[in-house]
Amino acid sequence: MEAVKQGSCAVGLRSSTHVVLCTLKRASSELSSHQKKLFHIDDHVGMAISGLTADARMLSKFMRNECLNHRWSFESPLPTGRLVRSVADKSQVRTHRASKRPYGVGLLVAGYDESGPHLYHTCPSANFWEYKAMALGARSQSSKTYLERHFESFDDLDETSLIKHALLAVREATSAGTTLTAANAAISVVGKDCAFKIIEDDEIQPYIDMIDAEDAPAPEPAGDAGDDMATDA
Predict the structure, then answer these.
(1) Which of 100, 117, 132, 184 has the fewest Cβ atoms within 10 Å of its own Cβ atom?
(2) DSSP character at residue 156
(3) Alpha-carbon dihedral sign for residues 57, 175, 128, 155
(4) Is there a domain that residue 81 lies in?
(5) Which whole-number Å values give the CA distances from 131 to 14, 110, 134, 135, 144, in the listed order?
(6) How far apart (Å, rounded) are the C-alpha atoms in residues 233 and 24?
(7) Per residue in 140-176, pLDDT tens?
(8) What are phi and psi of 221, to 5 degrees?
(9) Alpha carbon distance 15, 112 (integer Å)
(10) For residue 198, what are the β-bridge partners?
């Protein structure tokens, strides 16, 4: 649980048609690339992580195999809730065997199935919950506060508006002196008639520009020339 708290922030939120995940990528130094925090699992499901990325890779491989096996057996996508329950059962085994340690990673699993959009949060203790919006990782309390103020309006929002709220929530968790850029942010979207896709690097720049433009101060109105002349007189 402490590893999850120290990981970089990840945010998830859902409307009545889409689920959006947004992560803050972290680089170990200025010379290294940023560590990716979004994982594609299947066409209808993906996840964002906070904590030990190596553990997340192991769980993502397990989740992909579960989805593939279900498609092979039933010729249909695996329901998101059943997938998350399988991950929780696998994680729970690690908590009561002395030969293995628990997975040090928290997951935000986003999926869209026949029952609609879903957003689940799992933790190393093997508990899991479904949320309308959730944030985890370092300084995630600021993101949670933002989500608590706005989550009631999420149901009616379109994809672009959801992405905007996700970026604003992640920005709340950035440390002092750090700005949200195309290099350190990543977004994923899944929903109705929309397969899971990851938006990052140059593709995310228009969304960064959109929230920066809204924060830009409005230009001050030009003063009346007549008033200026009267003042000079």
Answers:
(1) 100
(2) G
(3) negative
(4) yes
(5) 8, 10, 6, 10, 12
(6) 57
(7) 999 999 999 999 999 999 999 999 999 999 999 998 7
(8) -65, 140
(9) 11
(10) 188
Supply the range of the domain harboring residue 23: 2-218
**Which tokens hold the place of 60?**
């993502």
Tens-digit pLDDT profile for residues 52-80: 999 999 999 999 999 999 999 999 999 99
Q: Is the pTM of the predicted complex or chain greater than 0.85?
A: yes
Q: Which two tokens stand for residue 120?
A: 């689940």
Specify the CATH number for the domain of residue 72. Answer: 3.60.20.10
Instruction: Extract the tokens encoding 71.
Output: 């498609």
Q: Measuring CA to CA, how many Å separate 214 from each of 22, 128, 187?
A: 19, 36, 19
pLDDT of residue 142: 94
Sign for the CA dihedral angle at 216, 210, 16, 5 comes to: negative
Query: Does the residue 233 lie in any domain?
Result: no
| CB distance 199 to 160 below 8 Å | no
Distance CA 225, CA 209 (A): 35
**Which of 54, 62, 53, 114 has the alpha carbon at shortest distance from 85?**
62
Provide the domain count of the chain: 1
- Judge whether 30 lies within some domain: yes
Tokens of 15: 């409307």
Spell out the residues 6+ positions from residue 71 whose beta carbon is closer than 8 angstroms to its own.
Answer: 42, 77, 78
Q: Which of 77, 44, 14 is nearest to 194 (CA)?
A: 44
- For residue 229, tell me if it sits in a domain: no
